[in-house]
Amino acid sequence: MPYTQSLLANGFAVGYHAKAAPPTVTMPCLKAMVSGAIGGFLDVALNFNTQALQDDNIIGQFFRTGRKMVMHGDDTWLKLFPGSFIRHDGVSSFFVKDTVQVDQNVSRHLDEELRRDDWDLLILHYLGLDHVGHLGGRNSFLMGPKLKEMDEVIEMIHRSSLRDKKNHQTGTLLVIVSDHGMTESGNHGGSSFEEIDSLAVFVGLGDHTLDHASATGNSANQIDMAATVALLFNVPIPKNNIGVVIPHALNFMTDAEKMRALELNSWQLLRLLQAQLSGLPCEHVLVEDNTGDTKSVVTECGGNIEQVFCCLYRNAAILHRSWKFNRISVSNIEDYKSAAAAYYVFLRTASQWLARRMTDKPVGLLVVGISAMILSCLIFLGLVFHLNEALYVREDHQISSLKKYAFSWHLDEIFLVGATLIHVISMGSSSMVEEEQYIWHFVSSTFYLLLIRKTAQTIPADRTQSPVGLSMSLNGKISYPIISLFSVLVSGRILRAWHQGGINWVNLPDISKWLKLAGHEYVKRLWLLACLLVIILSIYVLTFLWTRRKMVLVVGFSFFIPGLMVLKYIISHEDDTSGSFTYSYGSTVSAQKIYRVLGALTVVAVVAVPWLIHIWTSKACSNGDICLSTSGSHDILKLPPLMEMRDSFYVIGWAYIFCWCLLQLLLQQPTNSLPVLLLLVQIYASMLHYCSAVPAHKHWIEITALYQLGMAGHFALGNSNSLATIDVAGAFIISRCCHLVS
């Protein structure tokens, strides 16, 4: 941004690293800038359905003082401040794929608005830079052109303000701010340095020339914007503001005006402190301030928090009065500096305490809530244990045969229970929450290693029988359980290396970063290959585990159609995914068709599969077809209705998994295509193992193991417990509009 840099280098602008408070998403950051109050993580949910801001804010102050305001850009402003603007053109921030039209819709009004003189405040909120980050990260090849475009907008506005000033019109203040930063991957929402490091540049504060270091080496808090802008435009500071007026922003004022601004900011924070601390003994300070007493002396501050705040404010007020009294007879720059420094000590101390106070949680209520949850879990586990015991000991003749199996604990079962308890305990540590993916990768891989050990111990045993007769279809090959377990471990290791997830090690090299450096052509080929293999594997699973050929043809053909549609979408809209996306109607229509077909396939599977299976059940059973569920008893073969139910659930489940995989291939980043395939491989291999395991695993073991694979897969896709890893690049890819219900 050469023009903006020239303004900073020549002292015509002052720049700040404006530290934003998490969560670093648009709506909470906008509220912080206009009200001076810190948002909460509840605002993340409200960000998708923004309501009118009820807190006191500078937009409301402008409106109440008769200022005319115009807004073009992110429609979050229109939702926060309905009816406040005389003209507006809002654009949605959720169509992340659009990086061009979303900014053109703002810039098209710029020429006309700069020629008009009927507004006092013009807000332009550009979204293209944020969208470029979500699509390709901070190093996207679109980032340079987009920054140049923003620099041209700044130059256009600044030159227009210079012309107005030359024509003896009112001066214009140009404030350039960003609501948040972004990580290397282009996302935001967390509290890392890259996410909270936002921008604030003031252009047109006056003719005071600063060196480049003074103009750029400054820092402030994002909440300081509310008090600063309010004092610059001579409107009341929002009553819930906890920010501090930015020092360099007042340099064009006279010393008396600066001191008055600091005094107003101090009064406002003192009122907040008095609301929080009922015992704040500062009334005598305000009385002294009004009487003009100049005989008081500055004292050292100590004692409890109330006494410290009163002492700090009293010292600032004393020095301020002393400066006002002395400047009548002599100009004393040291008195002014001492008074200003004392005000800033009070302001920063009060602001930091109030910020902590706003984010404090009631510890007592948290302890009560956690205790209640633990108690309810213990009661539930006790009921389950007694119910399980009553179920298995109901008949005396079954006790001897069932106790050995139902109430004996194997190593894999003990490990799962212990791992679950360790995971629950680890959630009490913020560091473990940040790096939770390591727990799931360790637990899932260790558990499947234990299954390999358990399976190897059963090799000398009788191989002719299995719980569901699968040994017949596998021709007695005991290698299938071992191979399936190894495939889960190999897939898991690749998934583990695909993304360096979490918070602390996200910048380390991984496979996804290597693919991005290799170029889009390699990523696209991998994407197509993954989609093709998902289709083949889904159909192969049916033919391998199921001998009903007609049903396989019907279900397989239904799988094949949406798979081809996704392949066509990838080939036809490759530019959309390379980052050079211009919002197109055709890509949206194609995605909508895929979405409808996948939805219809799922519904048809639920409705039609049970009916078709019922027709072929008699013939299938007479031909010795296997049952499709993962575990069960041979007695189930004598109950056709139960066989139909279990087989129906199997086919419906695979239809759901297949549709989920295709949907993920459509919505995920292209580099995540192979992880989606590997997750499908893990699910298939796990089901194959549970079908052929001798003896059969308990149901809760199977469910827990699949849950662990799902959690490990969630983190393997690049997700974490930070909001910054939420990938919104696929948002609204299948819709042209959205309707949110409050």
From TrEMBL:
The chain crosses the membrane at residues 363-385, 406-426, 438-456, 526-545, 552-571, 594-613, 648-667, 673-691. It is found in: Endoplasmic reticulum membrane. It comes from the Eukaryota. Keywords: Endoplasmic reticulum, Glycoprotein, GPI-anchor biosynthesis, Membrane, Transferase, Transmembrane, Transmembrane helix. This is GPI ethanolamine phosphate transferase 2 C-terminal domain-containing protein. Pathway: Glycolipid biosynthesis; glycosylphosphatidylinositol-anchor biosynthesis. GO terms for cellular component: endoplasmic reticulum membrane. One of its GO terms (molecular function) is mannose-ethanolamine phosphotransferase activity. It is a multi-pass membrane protein. Residues 412-732 form the GPI ethanolamine phosphate transferase 2 C-terminal domain. Pfam families: Phosphodiest (PF01663), PIGO_PIGG (PF19316). Its main location: endoplasmic reticulum. Belongs to the PIGG/PIGN/PIGO family. PIGG subfamily. GO terms for biological process: GPI anchor biosynthetic process. CDD domains: GPI_EPT_2.
